[in-house]
Backbone:
């Protein structure tokens, strides 16, 4: 029963996170990327702490509970939440929005590399097609055939890849370091330390002139509604759903559901008038096909080797 609840949560998460790139791209038309990265997580903290106080008022303190209740909550928050959010938001700002949506499908392949480098987990040969097609598909998505420069490469693509590496590390490390914590507690505590990190990043960017200070604020109700959707639903509820799903189904299964994210994102852009180019469609299909091919093989292998379920692939 717990796994079926996890499946439902991941399916819902894929639909919700499919709106992330369109939402961020919309707000970046007027918001500073560093300020948006910080504000969208810091703005979610009151909701998270209120939920934690309401649902776990009898639980031990967030600073002492579990094996992760020490200094490790800081790297989890600063790297996994802070660096991820800052790099992701800035990456979307300096990237074609449809290319950004396609890049979100490469996270399982990126995670396999992160696992190899950080956690010394050998790269399963079943992941090689995903890695190869993710690189090829992402490269094709930047090809521009309508004249001018051949490649629509804006630099943000690299920032997004680094952001996904930070998120991949966080997803595995949080479950390893915070055993004994509920997913709500893991999410709330790491988002808090991540919020501190984001505030520092924004301050440094403002001092260096890379961020506007004071930041420009939207002057219409639509932007505030979009921001509320991103903060409460995509950030607060979304990160909780992710940790919830990984805990109950394992990252192998969880990664399958996230392949829906770029499909939802590109559909939203198409409906709003930003249609993908032929090369972006081909690139996106290659990325998703490679990930699905590898993950379906991993899913079959997991039935005979449960240890594979602990390897981070999303």
Residues:
């Amino acid at each position: 029963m717990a796994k079926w609840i996890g499946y439902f949560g991941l399916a819902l998460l894929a639909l919700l996170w499919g709106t992330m790139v369109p939402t961020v791209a919309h707000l970046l038309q007027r918001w500073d990327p560093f300020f948006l990265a910080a504000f969208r997580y810091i703005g979610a903290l009151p909701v998270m702490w209120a939920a934690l106080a309401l649902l776990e008022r009898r639980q031990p303190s967030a600073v002492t509970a579990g094996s992760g209740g020490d200094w490790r909550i800081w790297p989890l928050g600063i790297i996994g939440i802070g660096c991820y959010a800052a790099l992701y938001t800035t990456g979307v700002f300096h990237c074609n929005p449809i290319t950004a949506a396609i890049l979100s499908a490469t996270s399982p392949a990126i995670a396999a590399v992160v696992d190899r480098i950080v956690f010394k987990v050998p790269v399963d040969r079943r992941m090689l097609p995903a890695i190869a097609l993710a690189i090829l598909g992402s490269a094709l998505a930047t090809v521009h055939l309508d004249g001018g420069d051949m490649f629509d490469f804006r630099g943000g693509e690299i920032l997004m890849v680094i952001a996904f590496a930070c998120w991949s590390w966080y997803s595995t490390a949080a479950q390893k370091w915070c055993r004994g914590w509920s997913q709500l507690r893991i999410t709330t505590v790491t988002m808090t330390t991540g919020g501190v990190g984001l505030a520092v990043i924004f301050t440094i960017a403002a001092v260096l002139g890379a961020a506007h200070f004071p930041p420009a604020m939207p002057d219409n109700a639509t932007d505030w509604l979009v921001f509320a959707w991103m903060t409460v639903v995509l950030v607060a509820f979304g990160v909780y759903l992710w940790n919830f799903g990984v805990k109950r189904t394992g990252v192998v299964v969880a990664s399958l559901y996230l392949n829906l994210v770029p499909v939802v994102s590109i559909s939203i852009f198409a409906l709003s008038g930003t249609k993908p180019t032929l090369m972006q469609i081909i690139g996106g299909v290659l990325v998703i096909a490679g990930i699905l091919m590898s993950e379906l093989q991993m899913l079959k292998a997991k039935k005979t080797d449960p240890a594979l379920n602990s390897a981070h692939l999303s």
User: Anything to note?
Assistant: The two ends are 23 Å apart (CA to CA). The chain has 14 helices and no strands.
